[in-house]
Amino acid sequence: MNDKNQRLFEIFLDVQRGLPRQGPGTDETTLEALSLCTGLPEKPAILDIGCGPGIQTVALATALAESHVTAVDVHQAYLKALKERAQAAEVAQRIDILIADMNALPFSPQSFDLVWAEGTAYIMGFEKALAAWKHWLKSGGCLAVSELVWLQPDPPGEVAEFFGREYPAMTDVETIVATIRACDYEPLGHFTLPEAAWWQSYYRPLEAKLPALYDKYRGDEDALGIIETTKREIEIRRHFGNWYGYAFFVGRDLRVRS
Ligand SMILES: C[S@@+](CC[C@H](N)C(=O)[O-])C[C@H]1O[C@@H](n2cnc3c(N)ncnc32)[C@H](O)[C@@H]1O
């Protein structure tokens, strides 16, 4: 990363710092997705990719009392937050926390019964992520991913323009389900996250940070650009939320391995 990009990235991290979640979701939506993961063994090994501050990691470890979760992220600060959260919830002894890049994970093939990724598949590219993460799944293991999707065709210009710029690869639920099949997973179910999942632990606390961020970065055009885009993203949600959403998708690995 060159110096300018590194600086922009650090500003982005500052904007996101301290939020309970780094994307839409609630414990309820995590547990609803988990309920679609049928056929897990009694003591499942779970891999949480891009765990962030780890609300969902702790929710999974708490819900499955015999599970062992391995949580990976590239940012140490998030992993520290996860460690504290896991200790407070008394599940730390069943969570391994690892700084690692999702593109180069240090595991043996077929190590996990469940691969979990809330709001992170887009980082590699949805299809590429699904194909790559299969590598870590045991035969018949489950994959649960949440992803930004269009809910209706032909969105108004403002929202189409915004996501055309911010997430041009965004597609709809049917296309995602087709991709899941194409990557050799049996779709087990999907659902759209409720509106509260955007606000409770993500946009509301993010919006509350904005005035202090405008103050902190006064006169810094690069930083103000990032803060403006964040504000715009929240406004778009408020006005056009019925056109797009976050959806959870669960699938089962169909590959037969020797
Ligand atoms: C949208 S956030 C989702 C975080 C968390 N799953 C949640 O729902 O709150 C994306 C996460 O992926 C992490 N991340 C970004 N690039 C990564 C990479 N190459 N490998 C692993 N994690 C990465 C970020 O640090 C961030 O925590």
From TrEMBL:
<dbReference type="Pfam" id="PF13649">
    <property type="entry name" value="Methyltransf_25"/>
</dbReference>
<dbReference type="GO" id="GO:0008168">
    <property type="term" value="F:methyltransferase activity"/>
</dbReference>
<feature type="domain" description="Methyltransferase">
    <location>
        <begin position="46"/>
        <end position="141"/>
    </location>
</feature>
<dbReference type="InterPro" id="IPR041698">
    <property type="entry name" value="Methyltransf_25"/>
</dbReference>
<dbReference type="InterPro" id="IPR029063">
    <property type="entry name" value="SAM-dependent_MTases_sf"/>
</dbReference>
<protein>
    <recommendedName>
        <fullName>Methyltransferase domain-containing protein</fullName>
    </recommendedName>
</protein>
